[in-house]
Amino acid sequence: EKAVNLKKDLAEMQEWMTQAEEEYLEKDFEYKSPEELENAVEEMKRAKEDVLQKEVRVKILKDNIKMLATKVPSGGQDLMTELNVVLENYQLLCNRIRGKCHTLEEVWSCWIELLQYLDLETAWLNTLEERVQMTENLSDKLDAVNDALESLESVLRHPADNRTQIRELGQTLIDGGILDDIISEKLEAFNARYEELSHLAVSRQISLEQQLQTMRETDHMLQVLQENLVELDRQLTSYLTDRVDAFQMPQEAQ
């Protein structure tokens, strides 16, 4: 009777494992929204806990069959064979569910990381847009133009590492068919804004550099002219002091 009960327990255990495999490992999942992906992660966590909780039952079953095989070798041999099959299948099920759970957790982590990088780069784009707007309607003072140029250049020196991460994380998820529509839409919008703002910023940078160069050249010309006027004023003053007749002066002084 005990052998019959143990045999029944083995059959029930095998049936449960078959159902668990069908439910958690053989279903085709499509993750088209973050909610679907998050739900799948939570489901696989519960599946892993459920499977691992059966470890106690498996151990008790194993101990009972071994004890029976020791007491009744002839009756326990067949059960030991069935037990080994169940143990092998159980271990395989545990490994596969652990693996799938780990994979889904990694995918979810990848999605969260992508969102974080997008937030960082969006904040940078917002700052870049503000600096570009600050270059409009500048005063005609050299210091104001120089400060606006330096401020814009400091933002443009932003490293490209985050954008590389966005591209790689997005492509990894899209290649896996995970949230591909949502990610493609987000990346398209981000890349379009990045291209537009970066081109506008570089164009404004070049314009400010040219404006600054022109203003510096003009300042230099004015400085030279001022120096010449000062020298001319000194000469004229000396001529007047010496009561020199105008017709005796050089032509430019006249």
Automatic annotation (TrEMBL):
Cleavable signal peptide: none
Keywords attached to this entry: Coiled coil
Coiled coil residues, start to end: 3-64, 125-155, 208-242
Pfam family, one: Spectrin
The protein, known as: Utrophin
Species in which this protein is naturally found: Tinamus guttatus
